[in-house]
Amino acid sequence: MSEHTEAVVFMLAVRGAEATWPELRFLAAIPNGGKRSAKTAADLKAEGVKRGVPDYLLPVRRGEHVGLAIELKTATGRTSPEQREWLGHLAEHGWQAVVARGWEQAWDAVRDYMALEPPQTSHEASAGFGGMSISKNDKRGSHGRTGGNGVGWK
After folding, report:
1. How does DSSP classify residue 22?
2. How confident is the model at residue 33 (pLDDT cuts 50, 70, 90)?
3. What pLDDT, in 10s, does the model give residues 107-139?
4. How confident is the model at residue 40 (pLDDT cuts 50, 70, 90)?
5. Residue 107 to residues 8, 12, 16, 50, 111: CA-CA distances in angstroms?
6. CA of 139: how far to CAs of 80, 88, 145, in Å?
7. 61 within 8 A of 95, measured Cβ to Cβ
8. Domains of the chain in sequence order
9. Of 119, 100, 15, 112, whose CA–CA distance to 56 is shortest?
10. What pTM, to 2 d.p., does this model score?
């Protein structure tokens, strides 16, 4: 089975479990691989695409981890030095970082990760929201945009 087919089957399993674990809606594929034209590759590099970023990131806390990173490979696929560096870096910073050989291992990693105890929510710990607050008196608008410099959220 190709890595693309493995990825599609994996995402079907993930979408099928979103009713059980709504946080899975935050699982994102990172399209940093594949064959591209030289212009497209240059455009993506200019936009900040980095070699080696894992195929999937789930920025949801479970257990002692801040998120789950999955590098999906076929049964014979190999990780690149850049992929190993990214996985090591994320693991050092609190992520559970795994290499999954096929969609079944990727799905097992997600199920095992989601089965870990969620941390105490910030609402349970205090009245704050995860270290982030939006003041009712914030004059920058509903999304905290600063405006004036041409930079803001769209």
Report:
1. G
2. confident
3. 999 999 999 999 876 655 554 444 554 445 545
4. confident
5. 12, 10, 11, 25, 6
6. 47, 41, 9
7. no
8. 3-121 (3.40.1350.10)
9. 100
10. 0.76
